[in-house]
Amino acid sequence: MLSAAESIVFNIVEGCGSATPKEFARFLDISIKSTCELEYQLQLATDCDLLPRHVWNPLSAETIEIRRMLCGLRRKVLNPTTPRKRPPTENH
């Protein structure tokens, strides 16, 4: 579980050094896949009575929320919106 959890953040960090948005999105995709792996490992630990349900619930929910955030970030990286122009500032 620790390896899968570390993989999530390590791939985000590594992806930050990417030369292109497409390359960064690839690292985000790997992070997303690691959340799936972690979610299953949490479920398996619960099914094998190694992790109590009251501990599993918040960990699983947080893993799913992190995956949702990563999917949103990947979508933004691949399809950036045109930045809005800032209103002119007043010079005093």
SSE blueprint and pairings:
Blueprint: H1 2-15, H2 21-47, H3 53-78
Helix pairs in contact: 1-2, 2-3
Plain-language structure description:
The protein has helices at about 1-15, 20-45, 55-80. It has about 90 residues and is mostly helical. The longest helix is centred in the middle third of the chain and has 27 residues, at about 20-45. The mean pLDDT is about 90.
Key features of this structure:
mainly alpha, 3 helices
Main beta sheet strand tally, sense and closure:
none
Structural class: mainly alpha
> What Rg, in angstroms, do the CA atoms define?
18 Å
**What gross morphology would you assign?**
elongated
- Spell the H/E element sequence: HHH
- Unreliable stretches: none
Q: Could you tell me how far the N terminus lies from the C terminus, measured between alpha carbons in angstroms?
A: 57 Å
- What does the average pLDDT come to? 92
What is the number of beta strands? 0
Classify the beta-strand content into a percent band.
under 5%
- Share of residues in helices: over 70%
Total of DSSP H or I helical runs spanning 4+ residues = 3
